[in-house]
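Archive maintenance. Older records in this collection stored only the sequence; we are now back-filling the structure field for every entry so that each record is complete. The fields below show one back-filled record exactly as it appears after the update. Entries are processed alphabetically, and DUF3800 domain-containing protein is next in the queue.

ARCHIVE ENTRY
Title: DUF3800 domain-containing protein
Organism field: Fodinicola feengrottensis
Length field: 272
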Amino acid sequence: MYLVFMDGCDVPAPARAGLGPLRAIGGVLVPESEVAGFDTDLRRIRREAGLAASDRIGWAAGAALSDRDRRLHVHTTVLAAAMRREIASVVVVADSASRAGADREELVRTFLGRVAVFLQERGEIAVVVADPADDGLSQIARELAEVPADPDVPYPPETRIVLPVLSAPSRHVPHLQLASLVVGATTAVVAGQPEAAPVAPLLTRLMARRIQHTAGGAGLVLQPERYNILHWGFGERWHYDPTLRQRVQLPHRDWDYGTSDGLPPAAHQTVA
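Back-filled structure field:
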């Protein structure tokens, strides 16, 4: 069994040219056997960083991690701990200025569908948890997970999510703070925010992957499908194209951002 911790974020003004306001829904998938272990990891990280129990470590957490170097150290340490615990991430990012930009309900539906595929491939089930402070997110997810989906969808969420979507405040659930960090930082990399570039290599290693070992459409879903951003932002070299039924080397010259990352000179991202 997995516990799936869910969160959302918005980036109203991306630095990357050609992107409108971004809206994201995503989360982290934690194996049941690692839930307690990651909690222990985070307690140790907080203690070593001098953070109080009430201080949050999400990407948007401001006051507790106002020092840039300290913030980066805490975030990289937390992401590395998640990676060691075999935690995976799924994030759906939509450009709301595009015709493919989806409303929030559709983003949640897409997220739950990708989670269901991940679980189906592993013969697993899951419980989903969201913070009730996020306006309506848990309710949207609860309704979508309980109502039978389109029969053309191969692995509808209700076949893999075994309880109604649960609500819990993130101040009491460190795994929700990890979800906030992962979703916020992943979206920031897509947006081209330079402060997110140092954590991009760890975010890449957390992303759920297809059986072809590619993250596009699995761990990171972009709407519209501008998967060259996986190369420029996250250092990915390959993307599996379901239409062509083959892996495509990135950057692909015929796709958006085929020859440029779309960033102004001062904001170029560097991925190790």
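Update note: The chain has a mean pLDDT of 87. The longest helix spans residues 104-122.
Entry marked complete.
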